[in-house]
Specification:
single chain; 428 residues; alpha+beta; UDP-n-acetylglucosamine1-carboxyvinyl-transferase, Chain; 4-stranded mixed beta sheet; globular; binds uridine-diphosphate-2(N-acetylglucosaminyl) butyric acid
Length: 428
């Protein structure tokens, strides 16, 4: 096991490149199951969620090879192997295996997914969609069993706007007989990315990126090449660290339109920003103003940037309120930020941040992926040395983070944990 060491307080400067989107990758890879010939996905991030999905596709008979950061999946020999336990529990997005395997084989057995603990994360809307398409769905000893004689298109209204349910229903519906309409669908860019891949494979999908998606089922889907979109959450994390500890940071390989809510909030705080076609420049903000932020579904402010945004707000003058309307318990990073001298209170779904304070280096633990990003930003801002444990969370979603930050001049490295430190971790 390793920990991250960060010598804080050094200004960051230079260019940092964004990788392919994690939350697209984890849906695009299962989507390849639906094809009848090899699919190439270009530009995948080097993260453990991708590595886990590779193994899962191999477990069901797929051949998966890498050429740099391009993945080639040959799905021809795949079978509907039950996956009730094991690696499916390592990531939330293993639920996409349900939609994809149901779509191809009319049956699947998938253990209930893992992922970050952010409060309750039910999958009732996914199941509602599968049932509407004609599947029988049961929960047996912690695994979801899905079976259908035949999938038939249906009209499905999502009671909750859900990224996962929207994509999963698309995966199950592209080969179903007839027409499917998903109403109150989520509009995140990752949904458009998955729809683009499926369309290149031969699917007939209209309206991805709006709240009504129409799918006309087709008999077969074939292989294709697809380039993944850049990771808007990684880009947003870099924008935040540029604003928090930078003296001119250029973020490269971005779709600026995906980050408008964050750009607007940073400008409101007084951060100088220049937006190009595929780049965003974050200048040094001298005196930052407190702002209030409420997380919403896309195109609102993303919940995945709420935690890293909190770290930046410790530098702002005044009182900021951050409210998460998507998850009820996405505040586990706050206790750790307090260890670093932050002045933050949590009341219900809101965190109230009083600033400015100078953060102090400390030993902290990442409880989930974006909490990890928040603590890395805090460590870069802080005086002295910060040690971050719980790196397995950060490695699920940030590709080559240490190398990328070194490129900006950060003093940051990974170090093996001692036996004693590992024991302490277990007892926390
Ligand atoms: N929800 C339900 N029922 C469902 C599905 C969702 O009540 O059947 C609720 C959830 O509990 C949550 C809300 O709806 O309160 C939104 O959940 P959604 O389904 O949209 O989330 P998700 O698809 O499970 C994805 C990302 C998350 C990101 C959310 C929201 C992936 C693999 N994960 O999760 O990313 O926070 O959308 O944008 O795409 C992260 O990257 O750190 C991360 C957690």
């Amino acid at each position: 096991m390793e920990k991250l060491k960060i010598a804080g307080g050094y200004p960051l400067k230079g260019t940092i490149k964004v990788s392919g989107a994690k939350n697209s990758a984890v849906a695009l890879i299962p989507a390849t199951i639906l094809a009848e010939s090899p699919v190439t996905i270009e530009g995948l991030p080097d993260i453990s969620d991708v590595a886990t999905l590779k193994v899962l596709l191999e477990e069901i008979g797929g051949t998966v090879t890498f050429d740099g950061d391009d993945m080639v999946v040959d799905p021809t020999k795949m079978v509907s192997m039950p996956l009730p336990n094991g690696k499916v529990k390592k990531l939330r997005a293993s639920y996409y295996l349900m939609g994809a395997m149901l779509g191809r084989f009319n049956k699947a057995v998938i253990g209930l997914p893992g992922g970050c603990h952010l409060g309750p994360r039910p999958i009732d809307q996914h199941i509602k969609g599968f049932e509407a398409l004609g599947a029988k769905v049961t929960n047996e000893q912690g695994a979801i069993y899905l079976r259908a004689d035949e999938l038939r298109g249906a009209r499905i209204y999502l009671d909750v706007v859900s990224v996962g349910a929207t994509i999963n229903i698309m995966l199950a519906a592209v080969k179903a007989k007839g027409k499917t309409v998903i109403e109150n669908a989520a509009k995140e860019p990752e949904i458009i990315d998955v729809s683009t891949l499926l369309t290149n494979m031969g699917a007939k999908i209209k309206g991805a990126g709006t709240d009504v998606i129409r799918i006309e089922g087709v008999e077969t889907l074939n292989g294709c090449r697809h380039t993944i979109i850049p990771d808007r959450i990684e880009a947003g994390t870099f924008m935040l660290l540029g604003a928090a500890a930078g003296e001119g940071v250029l973020i490269d390989n971005v779709i600026p339109h995906h980050l408008e809510s964050l750009t607007a909030k940073l400008r409101e705080m007084g951060v100088p920003i220049e937006v190009g076609d595929e780049q965003i420049f974050i200048g040094k903000g001298e005196k930052l103003k407190a702002v209030d932020v409420k997380t919403l579904v896309y195109p609102g402010f993303p919940t995945d940037l709420q935690q890293p945004f909190t770290s930046l707000l410790t530098r702002a003058e005044g009182s900021s309120v951050v409210t998460d309307t998507i998850y009820s318990a996405r505040f586990k990073h706050i206790d750790e930020l307090r260890r670093m001298n932050a002045n933050i209170k949590v009341e219900g779904r809101s965190a109230i941040i009083n600033g400015p304070v100078t953060l102090q280096g400390a030993k902290v633990k990442a409880s989930d992926l974006r909490a990890g990003a928040a603590l890395v930003i805090a460590g870069l801002m802080a005086e002295g040395m910060t040690e971050v444990t719980g790196l397995e969370h950060i490695d699920r979603g940030y590709s080559n983070l240490v190398e990328k930050l070194e490129g900006l001049g950060a003093t940051i490295w990974r170090e093996k944990m001692t036996e004693e430190e590992m024991e302490q971790q277990k007892s926390l």
